[in-house]
Amino acid sequence: MPSETDKKKSKYTADRGWPGAFEGETLTRRGFMTGVAMGAGGVASAMFGLPALGFALGPIFSKTEHRALLDVGSTDDFDGETYVPVVITTTAGIGQAGKTLLYIRENSKPTKKQPWPYVAISTRCAHLGCPVRYIEAARSFICPCHGGTYDFEGGVTGGPPVRPLDRFTTVVKNGRVYVGERFSVNSQLERVSTRDAGEHVDGLWQILYPPRPTT
Ligand code: FES
Hints:
- By secondary structure, this protein is an alpha+beta fold.
- It folds into two domains: 49 residues; 139 residues, 3-layer Sandwich (Rieske Iron-sulfur Protein).
- Strands 1, 2, 3, 4, 9, 10 and 11 form a seven-stranded antiparallel sheet that branches.
- FE2/S2 (inorganic) cluster binds next to loops.
């Protein structure tokens, strides 16, 4: 006859006197169902939580484009007053499809955020990627597709674009201006990792709409 102490140590729930216990059970049905429910809850939470965490942390590991420097002209070709359109080849071997238009001007007041000697602005609209045009009379960039407008620095002044126009790094060598990789900027014109059109880079929006892996 097992003692009371042995019963309390028994692996069988009936021996321990648990309510609803059946002979031979080591786990009550309630305990089993609770475990199943908690497990299912954990899986469901992970299904929602892990992708969100991945998207949130993704930008930390994202890369910028890296390509050889491209000669876009003499330093005499540009000044700080207006933009000069320049066509560069971003992808060789595919003809016109591999070319893109940039607007370049001298960076007469380099800052910590924008230390490059020349400002090279991408013409790819930050809404859906249509080509923007620089309008000298308005000192603005205009997108014909949905009316997006940008100021002289490429910051959004109207319409649906979600961030300023992308830029390219620049460097001067032997009196020639070269452009390097494209990068995106936030509303403060601070450099961030390169994004696709339509991707946010400010505030909570950048977490809710993280960069796509194709960028
Ligand atoms: S693509 Fe430029 S405003 Fe829509």
